[in-house]
Amino acid sequence: MSLTLRELDWPLTTDRLQLRPGLSEDAAQIWPWYRLPEVQQWTTTLSADEAEHRQRWEAGLAHAMVALQGERIIAVGKVERQDAWSQTDVAEQARGQQAELGWVLDPRQQGQGLGTEFAVALLRIAFEGLEVRRVEAACFADNHASRRIMEKIGLRCEGVFRQESLHRSGRWLDGMAWAILATEYRARHEGASRAEAPARSQETR
Ligand SMILES: CC(C)(COP(=O)(O)OP(=O)(O)OC[C@H]1O[C@@H](n2cnc3c(N)ncnc32)[C@H](O)[C@@H]1OP(=O)(O)O)[C@@H](O)C(=O)NCCC(=O)NCCS
């Protein structure tokens, strides 16, 4: 059975963040910083006003995540379960087998490693919570901060698509596709645990 985000245990706590699925009422708190030009430069959707933002937020609630510091929402993201491509006769086995991630941080909190911390948590939710077999993320090639996050959390660049994306500036920009498999994620984590193990056993001596 495929779990949904809301069926997982919440909140998820990292060193500096508390994550939980988005709620309807979060829209108002997010809007003042989400609407800023420096945030909107690379995001998919630019809402004209708070009412439109609220409508879009509601429409995406099934896969919306927020991260809080104290009472304040400082990041929004998504972990969107999706069907993998398949031949039609095996479509049932491909249903819900992958997830797409996304992340947006309040500009006041950027540059402190929190975007990376949030993305690591979203990856964990996809693989350890939803148990998908593959995670994907996409960005404009010019979005260097987001590209760096992809690299840092272990995604592999699987494609650069020349001028495939129309930016609202009117320019056709390169797009990038990134991904990691569950098997690769587990191998990375097992490798990390093994590397830590001798230090731990020495401590206990
Ligand atoms: C992308 C975003 C989440 C990064 O958040 P952040 O908290 O500043 O990220 P971090 O502090 O974890 O930094 C991640 C890495 O990107 C690097 N980085 C940040 N801004 C950069 C820039 N303009 N150019 C190049 N690298 C940059 C950092 O140096 C860091 O790499 P390092 O650890 O090797 O030094 C944030 O900039 C954002 O919300 N942008 C607007 C929305 C957006 O672009 N979302 C993604 C759409 S695909």
From TrEMBL:
Q: Where are the transmembrane segments?
A: none
Residue spans making up a coiled coil are none
Q: Where is the N-acetyltransferase domain?
A: 17-174
User: Which GO molecular function entries does the Swiss-Prot or TrEMBL record give?
Assistant: acyltransferase activity, transferring groups other than amino-acyl groups
Q: Which PANTHER family match?
A: GNAT FAMILY, PUTATIVE (AFU_ORTHOLOGUE AFUA_3G00765)-RELATED-RELATED, N-ACETYLTRANSFERASE DOMAIN-CONTAINING PROTEIN
- Protein name as annotated: GNAT family N-acetyltransferase
Provenance organism = Candidatus Brachybacterium merdavium
